[in-house]
Amino acid sequence: MLEVVHIRDYALIDTLDLEFQPGFNVITGETGAGKSVLVGALGLALGARASSDTVRTGADRATVEAAFRVDTPSPRLAMLLDESDIAPDESLLILSRSVAADGRSRAQVNGKMVTISVLAAIGDELVDLHGQHEHQSLLRAECQLGLLDAYAEAETGAREVADGAARLNELKREIEALESDDRDRARQSDFLRFEINEIDNASLTLGEEEELRARLRLINHAETIYTLANTAYAALYESESNAAIDALDAALTALEELEDIDERFGEQRAQASEARARVENAAEELRAYTSRMEFDPDELDAVNARLALIGDLKRKYGADIAAILAHRERASATLASYDNRDESLCALKAEVDATLRETQKKAEALSKRRKEAASDMDARVREALQSLDMRGAEFATHFEATPLCGNGLDKVTFMLSANKGEPLKPLRQVASGGEVSRIMLALKAVFAAQDPVPTLIFDEIDAGVGGATARRVAEKMLLLSQKRQVICITHLPQIAAPAKAHYVALKSLESGRAGAQVKRLTGEQREQEIARLLDGSVSAVSLDHARALLAEFASQTLTKRKGRKK
Q: What is the 3-state secondary structure (H, E, C) of 353-409?
């Protein structure tokens, strides 16, 4: 649901922070007070087209933020958020839009920059803004089919058909790949065999390159290694006057005599003895190392040649030996698939036949179920339209047969004739205004259990409506608000009175400059606004009527709540 709206420097609005409530919300106010400005600002946050004309005169940019509580996102919303790498912050989604005075626009969701199309797609899953076609999900063909499937309780069957159609497309692509030009495949087979043979002939082993480079370093530094090792050996063991072993022997003799005098020197004597053993051991290892040093004059050429071969294979097949061997396995697998082409092709075609039969059967059953449900659904929509003073309206679900696809065998279009004698037309072609809002209200009432959009905003729904019809509109909205958040902009007291939260748009004039504000009404303020809606002005009589109307709806609401508890 929509929790908070923050607007700054948008049209007549300087700064506005507005908190909405769950259930039924209404916004009233005099003509020109800024109700439509608020709707326009919300539309901007939901991805509507931006214009620099909306930036308040003298400001650098207009900014709108809308915060939504999303405890359980719809599958499509979850997919959109995942694709955009956006995570709700404690179940909050904040849609932000700013428009600069030069017309440049920026969109964000939870602080992450997104394209306007992504913002609009996310907005479509959060709000149906009736009064602006671009935010009416029921006008979209994919939404109409989805609602019909939900109404028919056929969503599982629809998913199975979609999965079957997707598998058919995948199988057909595999068959097309196998049936590509035989000459191309023959050339590719020869090339793959060449690659495999070249890699196999190299007899590569993992870690070989590192070992070769280590050996190359030894060969290149053999003379230096021999000289340094002999120098170290001589310094440790063979110098005539100052070998380390001789110095340690002298120190050890002195420490032994000291220990005889004072046993506390035993530790130092032991340390010196250990040091002598270590020096002697190191000297012996150096002597053995130099005695084993033998380098074949041809070894340097052999190592360099082997490294050059590995380098050549790396340039062709991968960054290291592991990558080269992996390339060889892939080439072998591809070659095997070529060699088994006929067998694979037969298996794929058999799977296509089986999948097609199964999916066709499921699609036919799905189509039958859709048409049966559509008949009942159409009757309910017509009944809802008549209850909203559209007695001449007709509604029908039009089916167009299609080849088997992800949607099955049907293309579905909701058709409407708003007035008696007029032909049925696709719903998206119905004129905007109060009439289309009432049509949407009727549809929303019928689809209340199936429609995943949590917030409904109705603008101009009361155009040409009054009396008993207005009450029925209010009743429909109350019904919807039990499961959805409903926000309605209205001029009618019959629609405003039953709302859970009532807001008023007000004109303002500061420093000779026009502005607009919206505030929530309670108590006497609300009674006065209902009185104004009833009579055009506030008087003792209109106040009495307003209190009676509010009390009547409050009593009806209480009675319904008690009935639900029973």
A: HHHHHHHHHHHHHHHHHHHHHHHHHHHHHHHHHHHCCCCCCEEEEEEEEEEEECCEE
Question: By the 8 A CB rule, do 452 and 125 touch?
Answer: yes
**C-beta of residue 63 within 8 angstroms of C-beta of residue 10:** yes
The residue type found at 420 is K
The Cα–Cα gap between 31 and 463 comes to: 13
Q: Are strands 127-130 and 455-459 parallel, antiparallel or unpaired?
A: parallel
What spatial distance separates the first Cα and last Cα of the chain, rounded to whole Å?
A: 28
Residue 21's pLDDT is 95
Residue 541 near residue 530, CB atoms below 8 Å: no
Cβ-count burial of 226 within 10 angstroms (0-12 exposed, 13-18 middle, 19+ buried)? middle
Task: Please state the pTM of the whole predicted model.
Answer: 0.61
Helix, strand, or coil (residue 92): strand
Cα→Cα distances 536→352, 455, 542, 545, Å = 71, 30, 9, 13
Q: Return the closest-CA partner of residue 487 out of 64, 35, 33, 31.
A: 35
Query: d(Cα 114, Cα 110) in Å, to the nearest integer?
Result: 10
Q: Burial code of 323-348, b = ≥16 C-beta within 10 A, e = fewer?
A: ebbebbeebbeebeeeeeeeebeeeb
Q: Give the per-residue pLDDT at 35.
A: 82
pLDDT means per 10 residues, the chain with 566 residues, are: 94 91 92 80 90 88 94 87 87 93 91 93 88 60 86 91 94 83 76 93 92 83 75 77 79 86 87 88 83 73 89 90 92 82 84 96 96 94 86 91 95 89 85 65 78 84 75 87 91 92 86 82 93 90 92 70 53
Cβ-contact 233, 283 below 8 angstroms: yes
User: Across-strand partners of 444?
Assistant: none
Q: How far apart are CA 113 and CA 119, in angstroms?
A: 9
What angle (nearest 5°) sits at the alpha carbon of residue 503, between those of residues 500 and 509? 170
Q: Kind of pairing, strands 61-69 and 92-100?
A: antiparallel
Token digits for 299?
Answer: 């070894």
Compute φ and ψ for 71, nearest 5 degrees.
-75, -40
Where is 16: in which H helix or E strand? strand 13-19
Domains in the chain: boundaries: 1-132+458-521, 526-566
Question: What's the CATH class of domain 1-132+458-521?
Answer: alpha beta
Query: Is the CB of residue 34 less than 8 Å from the CB of residue 12?
Result: yes
3-class DSSP state for residue 430? coil
Helix (H, G, I), strand (E, B) or coil at 2: strand
Do residues 343 and 225 make contact, with C-beta atoms less than 8 angstroms apart? no
List all residues 6 or more positions away from 389 whose beta carbon is below 8 Å from its beta carbon.
Answer: 438, 465, 468, 469, 472
- DSSP per position, 191-222: HHHHHHHHHHHHT--TTHHHHHHHHHHHHHTH
Per-residue pLDDT at 295 = 67
Closest CA to 457 of 476, 443, 437, 474: 437
